[in-house]
Amino acid sequence: MRDPADILLRVEQLTMRFGGLxxxxxxxxxxxxxxxxxxxxxxxxxxxxxxxxxxxxYKPSEGRIGLRHGGPAAWxxxxxxxDSSRRHVAHADGALFLLExxxxxxxxxxxxxxxxxxxxxxxxxxxxxxxxxVAQHNRLMLASGYTLLGVLGFPSYRAAERAxxxxxRGWLDRVGLTDRADDPxxxxxxxxxRRLEIARAMCTExxxxxxxxxxxxxxxxxxxxxxxxxxxxxxxxxxxxxxxEHDMSVVMEISxxxxxxxxxxxxxxxxxxxxxxxxKVIAAYLGVPDEEVEKVEAEVGL
Amino acid sequence: xxxxxxxKTPNHVATAVRDAALTALIAFGIFLPLVxxxxxxxxxxxxxxxxxWVLLFSLVAxxxxxxxxxxxxxxxxxxxxxxxxxxxxxxxWRAAVGKWFVPFAIGFTIVYPFIVIATSGFGGALKxxxxxxxxxxxxxxxxxxxxxxxxxxxxxxxxxxAFYAVGAYSYALLAKEFGFSFWILLPLAGCxxxxxxxxxGFPVLRLRGDYLAIVTLAFGEIIRIVIVxxxxxxxxxxxxxxxxxxxxxxxPFTADDDGFAAVFHLPFTPVYxxxxxxxxxxxxxxxxxxxxxxLRRLPVGRAWEALREDEIACRSLGIxxxxxxxxxxxxxxxxxxxxxSFFAARQGFISPExxxxxxxxxxxxxxxxxxxxxxxxxxxxxxxxxxxxEIMRDMDFLKDIFGSTFDPTQYRMLIFGFGMVxxxxxxxxxxxxxxxxxxFLKERKSISADLVGEGHG
Lengths: 302, 457
Known about the structure:
Number of helices of chain A: 13
Shape of chain B: globular
CATH superfamily of the largest domain in chain A: P-loop containing nucleotide triphosphate hydrolases
Largest interface: A-B, 48 and 39 residues
Radius of gyration of chain B: 26 Å
CATH topology of the largest domain in chain A: Rossmann fold
Number of strands of chain A: 11
Radius of gyration of chain A: 20 Å
Strand order of the largest sheet of chain B: 1-2
Order of helices and strands of chain B: HEEHHHHHHHHHHHHHHH
Number of helices of chain B: 16
Order of helices and strands of chain A: EEEHEHEEHEHHHHHEHEHEEHHH
Structural class of chain A: alpha/beta
Number of strands of chain B: 2
Largest sheet of chain A: 6 strands, mixed
Strand content of chain A: 15-25%
Helix content of chain B: 55-70%
Mean pLDDT of chain B: 85
CATH architecture of the largest domain in chain A: 3-Layer(aba) Sandwich
Structural class of chain B: mainly alpha
Distance between the termini of chain B: 38 Å
Oligomer: heterodimer
């Protein structure tokens, strides 16, 4: 099976302050290649902030976020890369990226980290197919010779566009939206929009897929389908997934590894079974009886 | 006073009369100071207050009766029609019109000068080809150019005329100083204008909505004021005159022996030049349209539209939004530069007066009225707005109705504004508001304007 030491993403001492508010406080965790790593925690725990730091939408106040392409030996380059002022470095075994140094679009373009959003951000006035075509922008831009060859109608661009349509059609099949390919994304039902957003993220051909509450607002049947889709993306596409989720039926069923956050601090980290029975996690989610408050506070370090 | 329950209540006539009376009262209140009183200066240059009761009461009566008519007849009819199930099928004639409209329109614009010459002769054709054809086509081209920035990329640009000015002055100055030909300076003017487009783009990249509009407006004014004050280069308000005219691939349009008429053994008339200019701007406008349609199907065009829909999602997909916005500004500005150099070549004289904010506003309203992102809509809006105002210049028949002191040109802007209000009520997203997808799997379905974003600035 998967190698437990095969680390893809390494978040170290990640801290994000907004003025006086510490949203994420010295958070460290690792996501392994080919795993579904879930990031859970009560509302306001700082999960989405962590996501925004990883995908470059926020610049963290402190900390290091490393991502590797290729084999695990690439991690050897981590310390030299940190000391240099560069964003990424090529290695014989792959490449290494420091995501906290990269602006958002480069995180997607070069480090190949794709994401979805908590409140769906499709292009509502464009069709489902067009949404997936926009996701392949960078590859098509190259094929169109940065527009020049494309305007002149070079055959190489037309071939690239056909390939892009085929890839989009493949993903529409996977998420069951082929029949609605030519309908505007804004017209699709909510569950379909969620699936389309995942398909759009996958069309960027990422090495890490970050999903921000993909099951929010789905009914039990739809979230069951989502589970199947995510497992198929993990197993058939060898994708590593980082997941924020509130729906425990999704989290416990499909996650390989769970990181629990509360008030920006990591309170648990481990397999679903270990996290499920962890006292701190139960306390954070359900609260504790009055007589135990002091004991738990002492444990959590308050 | 509502009229929603007109049909149900037995005394709906009384309700309607009350409603009409109230409307008439409001109209009286508004028109009493506006129409009822008039100040005129007499021979000794004193202001005298006169009253126009007849006009006032006839206006109030028209409004009151109109409201009564609406409440009694039109509104119930509209209500009845709304209750009927909507016809889902598009009538056959509309599908045919949709299919044949574009080829017919292109064909018509190509033969237009000959139709005009055939109907009104060489003398009359000059006015129709120049004032209508060329004038409208310049605005069609500018509208299509601005459509890239506003309609596709969703960036509200209130200073578009600045690039038009850059194009015009580039041509005028370089042609006069260095004697370059029109065909060299046309692309050069486009390049210079798009350079300024990128220059404007950089500082406004982070701005959105109202702020973007204000900065672009300021940029337009800066360019104009620089042109006014940089007298050494631009000759300020006096403008630049005797700008070289474009030739027919080296053959000038003069009455000389080596002029166009003599070379082709035709009798000399100034119409040839005008017709040549007409086809020139037609070709430039078609180029703009073709390139825009082409770009929409390319990744850069899709990125523009995606940017209009959701900028954050664009960034999450690895699209460099900075470059995408800059290319939109540069492309839009380039076409304005082409149009500007054509304008300078056609007029032979340019001054800062031609590049005021009103021009930017006109071009923007063409884009908004036509429907943002729609090529056909923008063309129709340009014809209606520019052609309409030109036609209203000579509405002499109105003098027969309102008396010889009536000056129809003064009412141009009033009628124009009224038309705009009507369009904004009936078609708030422009004449053609649906969006056509750039790529499709099975069939191309047009997308309703409700879903299409307007951009955030």
